[in-house]
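Q: How do we represent a protein-ligand complex in a form that can be generated token by token?
A: Start from the inputs.
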Amino acid sequence: MAFISENIEEFHDIWVFCEQRDGKLQNTDFELISEGRKLADERGAKLVGLLLGSDVKGIASELGGYGADKVIVCDDPNLKVYTTDAYAKVVCDVVMDKKPEVLLIGATTIGRDLAPRCAARLHTGLTADCTHLDIDMNKYLDFLRESSTMEIDPAKFKMEDTNLKMTRPAFGGHLMATIICPRFRPCMSTVRPGVMKKADFVQAKADACEIEMYPVTLAEEDLKTKVLEVVKATRKMVDLVGADVVVAVGNGIKSDVKKGLELAEQLAEAFGGGVIGGSRVAIDEGWLSDDHQVGQTGKTVHPKIYVALGISGAIQHKAGMQDSEVIIAINNNEAAPIFEVASYGIVGNLFDVVPKLIEAMNAQKAAK
Ligand SMILES: Cc1cc2nc3c(=O)[nH]c(=O)nc-3n(C[C@H](O)[C@H](O)[C@H](O)COP(=O)(O)OP(=O)(O)OC[C@H]3O[C@@H](n4cnc5c(N)ncnc54)[C@H](O)[C@@H]3O)c2cc1C
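Then emit the structure tokens for the protein with flavin-adenine dinucleotide bound:
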């Protein structure tokens, strides 16, 4: 197949790889389609979802409701369950044939496996774990003005640059780096789940979405692995990303971990049911399982209320929670950096403050 990733003028449109599990679209798909819509509008391009699976045509149009103009469906029994071989082959076949300018993939376990494999085969660049994307130069400069201390002089930038500008934390979160892929296409990026905001679903857009069935060619020799059985973890994973209230604990509970976790649970309960999260220390110490970790190497959350109990607010932690609507921090050190992003800060020993808070909340509820 004639595919040369350097002929960049041959590449058009913004694509999003849409992950399904057990025939269900994932939240990350809707977030990426919503973000892809903005990029497609900036570029004056079409937004296309790429959906692989078995018997999945029926779920494709929902992606239109979040902004996709079109969904390309690759339907084959061998795509029912994710395997690296089959998915990488089919994604690369479609990309080589149709030549998208941008390909976004969720930085989920599947996306982190699939994206580098495809980028290597397509001979293009991949920026992993992005937290911000732009095409339009003016929008990118606005982003720099808002989020950095740089002096922005538009004369120093190539304002007509239409490369995808892919921003991600670098050097342990101490820097933000914007990476471009100017010589090859598609520009590929994995994007952290929970970072991009999901647009409102519009039924009329879903109804208008074009669905294209793309013929899959998978030969026996393409499939080097076979899934014989899927054994799901019996442990229920905590749904941090979708939670309205997150009560997170950090190293500040170390003097009495059991009590600290109990208080966090009770506080979450007082909020009408919140989810427990933790800083990396809480995970590394084994107080909570790794699906509870908030931050750069954990999950990015933006709940309505985020409570940080005994968390200092290291940059890597803040990267995962600073966009929460309301942040309540309880810390015995008034200089703790968490207070820089907190909407409400309480300086004190969490073992004294939290019981009083719970008592006050419960009293107020009872009074109502
Ligand atoms: C590459 C890289 C990636 C990382 N990724 C992550 C990540 O995803 N998530 C993450 O969280 N961290 C991450 N980290 C680690 C991060 O740098 C910090 O070390 C970590 O967040 C600190 O956790 P902490 O705030 O719980 O602990 P500490 O920094 O030890 O802070 C504990 C806080 O509790 C306060 N305290 C102590 N006792 C009490 C008390 N009784 N009552 C009230 N307050 C009290 C202290 O004053 C202090 O502010 C990463 C680091 C690196 C280098």
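The pocket of flavin-adenine dinucleotide is lined by residues 172, 250-252, 279-281, 293-298, 310-312, 314, 316-317, 320, 330-333, 336, 349-351 (CB under 6 Å). The longest strand covers residues 12-18.
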